[in-house]
User: What shape does this take?
Amino acid sequence: MSERRKMPLILALIPLVTLVGCLFISLRLLGAGPHIPIVFSTAVAALIAVKAGYKWDDIEKYILETMASSLQAIAILLIVGALIGTWILSGVVPTMIYYGLMIISPKAFLLIACVLCAIVSLATGASWSTVGTVGIALMGIGQTMNIPLPMVAGAIISGSYFGDKMSPLSDTTNMAPAVAGSELFEHIKHMVYTTVPSILLTLVLYTVMGFKYGSNSIDPTSLNEIMALLADKFTINPILLVPPIMVIAMVVKKVPSIPGLFAGAFLGAVLALIVQGAGLGEVINVSFSGYTSQTGNEMVDKLLSSGGMSSMGWTITLIFVAMAFGGVVQKTGMLDAIIDKVLAAAKSTGSLILATLLTCIAVNILTASQYLSIVVTGNMYKQRYIEKGLHPKNLSRALEDGGTVTSPLIPWNNCGAFMASTLGVSAFAYAPFAFFCYITPIISAIYGYTGFSIEKLDKVKEA
Assistant: This one.
């Protein structure tokens, strides 16, 4: 393999500028998708790498290795697609919507959605599983109540990422202190300073928004009509709440995501056969192609026409091309060249923490992976924190404040692509309402400059 060589900054910046420019033109000016701009930017990055002395065989290997790292996420996406289809056909989703409409007040809906997702995610440590189970039903309830879906998606994602960030069961919560050199529970306790104020501010905003938009909810007559349609089309039964409860329980018991979600999809298929009287062929078709509702009510049909493995094709191709770009810029040293300049400029504690947060966001954008945002940034900044006499838990907190919570805001990031596909709302649409995801890094940066909660290394222990 080609010897790793230092990439000049001017060359390293070309793919980044190309990516930003192409995405802006495609998404904002032309109304087109992000796939081809990212493919083009990958080609530019590869040409830059060749100019810097890398062989094409090595560049191709970098691309394939990085793509391979996303296969687990893609497998989860395919299973979630099948799960959504079988859960609609079996009546699981209609049942959750039906009961939700009975007990949830429109004015309190956004607040309740955020809190409910926070509790489930905190218990499971898994934002993806939370969104793929509870989140799906909440989107249906919110749509029926005429609450703007980007707001609903923002509330679901905010709650899910609060729990993911604070749960000791979460992979990123374990990864950040491991990379930074701190300890898990001191890391979690240190995150309380930034995470709790962030979620409280978020809940206040959802409460205010709820009073504004909840007042415009659907009238009782239309609501009763929708509930009657659901009860007429599906058998509504509490037993249909078992699949989501089972999936959540399995995640709590640390069953891996793929078998846990597959079991949920399989149970949905079984209940479709037994409870709804569906045919085996219909179950198989819905698992792959999704469910198509034909009740005659436009809102209900739009609400329940979803799911299927094939529905994830757009997202899967987006992940692949984004990971290809990330593989080139990371493994040819382009990312290192940019971060080295940032490190050189980070003199004070505040600027160092801000640089950590911004680097995590940049790596999320460039590599499409929240894990790389934590690992790459943590390894590059670890020594600088020690040199400045800062406790490693300051770094681990900044990694999560900048890396974990911003990942769903980026459309081509694994997390952003999953959230958009599962909830049916683009990342650009829900990002302004995922308050927790950008309030947290802002508070973290403020703490860096004010010194609040920034802990120094214990010189006695260090000696």
